[in-house]
């Protein structure tokens, strides 16, 4: 499949655990069906929302394989394969490719801050040994590493299968620069929920978000309005869903989205410690925000 | 005049100096006429671009009075009256009111960081003694003080004539919050040039900018396209002028705008030291950017 | 007098105002005598503590002249002459020299962030027209401009009478670098009160502080212990006075020091708005801290 | 063994890899002997320097067990056991205890930023199930999480076996506050190499450092001078070794220390990608710095 098909609302899955803290794959299946029923244009497992960083290798593989089987190519699947080591990242990327992923997403997580050269070699080492597209992901808020637009363009130009960029800094100027320097040819995606509206007007091709777990209709309607050039409608839809977008971002996506799934009838357990479940006050606030959106 | 009339492209004037470093009021007159001819919807003297912070009190008054006389109510005039002391700010605000300003703009500049309470009292002390609207201005990049949305809303709610907010952090979330918390009732204006497009889609009522000194047509066309709901056109116009917007912001507005005025035929001298004139390489780059826009 | 004589405890004066907000020079005289009686090794008027940034030019000159007359060369006087413009800074520096200052202190305050080149030219323009030593002052917390060690060394090497550096970032590494790069030849002074102990061990020649307005004995004993190589005693003295040093820094020096002077029997009025007087709770806490030191 | 015995120079081991990237335990044994011969007062495997974050669980256990066997209680061993999950951290801590560690070190690494409550529960969950002391480790530069002094004191007061704090922010004020709030009763250790001198004067009980892999004599002499109250000597020794301390910190400890070991005759391989070996220019500079110290 071509990169061109990745666009619109890219829905991030949570990773459900049972009461013992073990993977709950049936619940994952339900959550995937809810996302697809909700109209997302692609599915992204094992990302920040999916607690990919907190899984054992065996668990990671189980989730990746299960998700790809469940989606079954109805829509594209983009698997987050970031690992602390380059070898581990490549191994996961190849696993995803072997099991039918349409693309992989790579965030340069690390313990030590990486130099530009180290980041470049990291992407090159994976890209050179992979047959599917890579979405480069910049999110200093979780990775501690902020890739400059210069570095991103250097990687995109040198590594053939790095064909997409997900930008989550929340700084709209990054998207402007990606657009200007690529003469509008590099597809970029927004990973900052409360910037969904402006990212689209700046030219983002898609919105990477966990929100469709809770409000798929509003997310989809925003994209539809944008595509139809109905900006007053888009603005109105955006401001309507903004309180939820702010809430899930500030509270931590795994905690808030899992709480929201429970409030809407799907039990997916608590995040894995040290991450904690949303507390009672938070759940109450979330319920009110969801009620306001009905 | 009502606050409602302040909207669209709000053009900031530079403050011309002659070769001796003295005020050059005739050149100021020319630059004001260029802005009005260029179609700006309001004029804002003595702001960041206007080197208001670097003038003696006598010079400040001369520029304020000259500008108000020159504009002569053809369009609204918003005078920046920020001073390090509350007393000085009030004195300037009253001077502006007495000479016919439609509104004043106040940035809480200081040497010591101010507490929220000190900032609140600063606005209240001026507002309680003034008969025209105040545009509250947040620009931590120059003032060193970042007013939270909480504080801004507190001031707006408590001080009757603080009726407008100019936001220059470049963080679109501030505008979202101003909009959400005021139920869309508080007019906010964008002061970050490279965010012009997104600020409008988020609901900004105007764009405070020095760019019309150099490219008034492109600025105005962007606003027209936005108002007509032609977002593809707006996006195209925005990306076209973005290299210039980036350049004048990064190079410092007084230096770059004065250099640009010279390149376009109006001599307004150099900024006042320690600010320096744009160097030869910068002038060359600016010339190329301007050429590309013709 | 030579730069060599500036060392030890350099006491910063407040600028007293009467109940009308006008200069109270007799109170200034009293505060200077208290500092000298308290054993400070030099006096520094019109700095951050002295609200130099909030005075009219006339007031500034009155304070400078009065202080120099009052000190009357009993100990060195270092006058802070920072102004937003280069011309204003030079004018103040020459005024200080003409009235007998031993040195001037210059912080590159500005409204627009200055480039390294602009800062360099600022110091050169003043230095080339002055006959007394300049203490370069780095304090991004108030000035918004952080001079790198590279830039500081460049200025020190190029401008003959920039012979001392006051460092107030609170980052001990800056002092290490100043020491290493000058092979220990550049006198540096600490302007961060809660780093007094470590700055001395790193090689600082003096401590620029407003604390001697309130606890001159403890300040002086610390310096004495350091000079005698009694580091256990120095450590003990430092930790004893640290709560006060923290308090006056966090609360803003003009507010807290003026409050402390009142609590110790010298009325110097309130800081000039927008700065506010220390509130009742703060005064109560300050009283308890002072009581603990008796 | 009691916490009291952990003091002085705490030497961090690297983790050697062979040319295939596999663990090289014999080289680890040599490096441990060099540290002990060099006079360190304790050994700390699997920390930042030891690339603990980049090892598989099997490798991690092999290094922990081998190190404890090699040291064989000649001096205390403090094993870094940080893992992304609470369960993994506890498992490693119990492994270390079972194999004879004197203490463990825990840094709250994570992918998502943790709330104070989550961090607190993380330490409590481990502490409640462990029989040896825990050194709480704060290093936002690698973990992305900065624990306030308030939070640290709360954990220390609530979790019995959190008995030591390692502070690596490089902000001396943190140590001051730990000292003040614990009335000097909480042992704190410095993890910021270029702050070694000042941390000791502020009261640090030890210096956690990888430098003894390269310059054990200078490190030890500094501690000896400090303990003897010879501060002029300590200052001189500190400034002498500072260029090396700066260099290894800025270049990343695994890369620079492994390069330095090679330059001094012990081959320990390259760091694990994405970390890269020190480049030729860096090696040349490091050689010169080491030569200057002979």
From TrEMBL, chains A, B, C, D:
Gene Ontology MF terms: N-acetylneuraminate lyase activity
Keywords: Lyase
Catalytic-site annotation from UniProt: 137 (proton donor/acceptor), 166 (schiff-base intermediate with substrate)
Sections of the chain in a coiled coil: none
Gene Ontology BP annotations: N-acetylneuraminate catabolic process
Cellular component per GO, a single term: cytosol
Binding site for pyruvate: 49
Keyword Ion transport attributed: no
Family in the record: Belongs to the DapA family.
Protein name as it appears in the record: 4-hydroxy-tetrahydrodipicolinate synthase
Organism of this sequence: Modicisalibacter muralis
